[in-house]
Amino acid sequence: MTVDYQARLARLNALDGADAVAIVPGPNMVYFTGLHVHLSERPTIAIITADGLHFIMPKLEAIKVENRADLDAQLFIWSDEDGFAGAFQAAADALNLNDLRFAVDGQTMRVFEYLAFQRAGVTHIGDVGQELLGIRAIKSAEEINLLRDAVERSEQALDALLKWVQPGMTEREIASKLGQLLQEYGMSELSFAPLVQVGPSSALPHGMPGDRALAQDDFILIDFGGKIDGYPADITRTFCLGTPTVEMSKIYDTVLAANQAGIAAAKPGVPCGDVDKAARDVIEAAGYGEYFTHRTGHGLGLEGHESPQIAAGVTDTLQPGMVFTVEPGVYVPGLGGVRIEDNIAVTADGIDVLTSYPRRLEVE
Q1: What 3-state DSSP class applies to 140?
Q2: In terms of DSSP bridges, do strands 102-104 and 20-23 run parallel, antiparallel, or are they unpaired?
């Protein structure tokens, strides 16, 4: 994907109430600069002002910026021998940070970095964490294509897994095999370690794979995904290897109807909370409301969980370019659980469901 990072940086200069914005290594730095810098005890800070891009950076990392002429960045380099305080002071003085409306990402900047700015004389520090998430929430067509590719390859891996899996295999064995398959289908990395839960363990919304073996006629819940160039798929499907009971089928049909209702409610301009309510109403009407214990969905991007939040009471509205999950679930202790998760992109006049893997309980 070709990215105009200067255009992305310009959006930070347009933020209300901030003349200078500081970000630390992680998804924001990748998004706005394309730089992958290890987050460690050695602080690296990108500072964006009207005059351009500036970095407080340890000497051993400086080559990453020096090799990026397109960023045209000014460096304030520090060494392990001298420590980082001098670089913070030099940046604060050269950029007149105390005379600017200086803001940081309050969700990711660490306390010792915040204090380093204060000690350098920057006394008025604002928080633009939510604004940064808002910028990243609107994906370009290229970003959505990467997400679509991640979904398609992940679904191919799931299909291969279901041809292989048999009763008697443990959750851990199945999860390990799925991780291998995701790599075989070209994923650059995993979105997260695959979650595989069978039988009663599937009643844990985010239980980790263990040594429980898949039995005939059990639920098997699989939550997984791979990344393409940093953009993840996040898919959940629930199956029964055998013949489900009447109660298992009822739970599955309820969750499937809730999933479909949530997707049907999504379109530009709709409050996120309305999508949650559409899915939740179906589950509550079926008598399983107490067993739906999490939000209906979350945004997808450089982070597996980001804006928008598809949760009760959220008044933020869906906008074209947003990508999010719809993943209602019912989890009955002692019996098991069902979750069905799809990935949705908002278009100018509707939605595009990126996931297409069949939503069926019984494995064919």
Answers
A1: coil
A2: parallel
Query: What pTM was estimated for this model as a whole?
Result: 0.94
d(CA 80, CA 193): 35
98/101 Cα distance (integer angstroms): 8
Report how far apart, in Å, the C-alpha atoms of 150 and of each of 228, 243, 325, 360 are. Answer: 5, 31, 14, 21
Secondary structure (3-state) at 200: helix
Residue 151, H or E segment: helix 141-164
Q: What tens digit of pLDDT does each residue of 8-55 get? A: 999 999 898 899 999 999 999 999 999 999 999 999 999 999 999 999
Q: Is the dihedral of CA 206, 207, 213, 216 positive or negative?
A: negative
Give start and end residues of each alpha helix (H) in 120-224: 129-137, 141-164, 171-184
Instruction: Report the 3 state secondary structure along 323-359.
Output: EEEECCEEEECCCEEEECEEEEEECCCCEEECCCCCC
pLDDT tens per residue across span 154-179: 999 999 999 999 999 999 999 999 99
Whether 294 and 206 have beta carbons less than 8 Å apart is answered as no
pLDDT digits (tens, 9 = 90+) for 93-116: 999 999 999 999 999 999 999 999
Length of the chain counted residue by residue: 364
